Amino acid sequence: MAGTPAGVGAQAGGGAAFLPTRRSLASLAWAAADCRGCDLWAHATQTVFGEGGARARLMLVGEQPGDAEDRAGHPFVGPAGRILDRALAQAGIDRGRVYTTNAVKHFRWEGRGKRRLHKRPSAAQVSACRPWLDAEIDVVGPSAIACLGVTAAAAVLGRPVTLSRERGTPVAGPGLRPTVVTIHPSAVLRTRDDAARHAQLDGLVHDLGTAWEAARTSS
Ligand code: URA
Question: Is the residue at 9 inside a domain?
């Protein structure tokens, strides 16, 4: 991946050219499997599309699939997914009742020996993938959105976001839906100090609870 010239094998205009005319979650996922809207497909195992309740009131948006998700083909099934599951359970939210997706649907990585290390998607890759996220929001029609991390938040809100300033309080997102910005679950994993890690997890649980409440109470 490292050193891949931007735009190799990519369709100008991003994912929009690959969207199906008749839209359901199944038709979107099917079409997204062949997306060449940016260059990331060339080095990923597969497209990892969103999953969950087709009429979920709350949509969770992460950054991009990780190594485990790229291999499995499902969002948030690796180490960050396990933290997310724990936080959702602690917040009293059934994961089956939310829709979980990512701002970017292919794994961006760089090789380090035999390992594939996560590399943050570029602004161009996020914007190439945006038509898929818009289509998911359209089809699912969630009442609220929770953005997991700053890349997801910037993708959903369409502007730069400062996590420390904006986390935890609903702001108007796509279609004026209440949108809550919170940390990415991998931030919990990266925190070495026990007390700080528990505080991170508590914060994530709290913010997810706020998003769930916003979804429950908004039309
Ligand atoms: N991190 C994300 O942002 N999304 C996933 O699906 C997995 C890890």
Answer: no
